[in-house]
Amino acid sequence: MNTKTKHYWLYVLQLEGGKYYIGLSSRSDAKARILEHFHGFYTAQWVRKHAPIDVYDIIHIGEMTFDEAQIMENRLTKQYMQKYGRNNVRGGVLNYSGKYVYIPILGYFYRGQDAVIIATLLLQLFVIAYLVIN
Q: Is 90 helix (H, G, I), strand (E, B) or coil?
């Protein structure tokens, strides 16, 4: 685990088609990172697919490790997904569509191959519980 701390900013880009992108920057000027998205440099596939139209929010989240900042980015991404729909928001580990699957009963996103295993185990647990109860 990396224990080096930096100041981090979360930013939310409003994209075409009612889409959103949540990003993370440790630059002293987060606006420079945001401008890269608008100019197509070092930008996420999601932002290339749905062009940015506005900066929705910039949040200074303080000094922390990169791992802690990523947790904050993932939380904000999940909040936006709940508000605007999972198909309309990307950010953090949930950056690329199709790589992660949401399992509602657990309230988490999992990599596609892991989601299949977890769903199978859950189904087996439900069957066992049903057989025990009856």
A: strand
